[in-house]
Amino acid sequence: MKHVLKMSKNLKPRQFQLMDVANGHPNKIPFKCALFEVDKPSDGSPEGANGKRIRISSDVCDQYIDTFVGMAFNIDYHNEMRGHDTRFKVGVIEKAYRTMDGFAMVEGYLYGKDFPDVVATIRYYNGLADEYGWEEYRFGASLEMEASVKNAEDDENVLDVIEFCGTGGAILFAESAAFKNTSFAARNSKKDREVSEVDAKELKEMLDSLKTELSASVEKVVGEVKTEVGAIKSELDALKAANQKKKEEEQKASADAELKAAKEEAEKLKKEIEELKAAAKIPEKEPERKTASAAQLLAKYGQTVDEDVESDHKAFCAAVDRLNLSASESLALKIKHKEIMAKQTDKQ
Fold it and tell me: What is the pTM of this model?
């Protein structure tokens, strides 16, 4: 499995030297550096190793050490020279090899004319380390590589590198490098000191100026980011408001449609109720009952009567008696005639 490894985990490096030999080129300051020790686990876990230490054997080193040739050294001013800034490259590696005492070495040059502050910073702090023993201020080197690793058979906390491709290195304070036995130190020939060495006061002024520039740059970027974030927030709030308004309009339209349908249904039911109420107020017309006349009552028995019998109940009863009917039939005829007479009286 391929891992991107950057060796920078609070470790004390050995020595990175700016060479005392001047090569005559105004922009080339030669350096020599031990990147790592072979056949020995790192003192700490580099970035990308998931908390484990790494180990590079002599055979793997010999096979892949040349991949560092042509790669660049960088320095990270933004993090106080304690990390990696791969976009701020200040030098290049021209040569890579393994020494007999077990170190992977690289040689090359820094762009001294392009980055005089880098060269001056290295020399100044390494001078403090030499003069006062402040090793935490000594500069070191940290390697960068892509590597395939496997779990070590003899230690579960170690990853053995089985192949790698060197992608560069970083110049940083000693305590921030990966291997305790690698470092970066600055040295210069007398000739170089005469023409290019910056004293402590000049270096402090240079660093203060750089710090001010970086601070202003950071503040500008932060201001731009805040402005952009504010614009995005305003746009987001506007979108939220628009979406909320649209949602409310849709809900209102839906409620209005439901209300309209309910009103229509209510009107329909109201009309039906009114129709039912109206129908309930009109009593059903009873069929007219035909009232038989006295002549009709007696005609059933083959008896005819005069007109005066129609209106004379006593005469009618005498006519019924003459029929010699049973008492019940006679009584029924008499009662019916009496009812006829009563109705005629009511109509009058």
Answer: 0.49
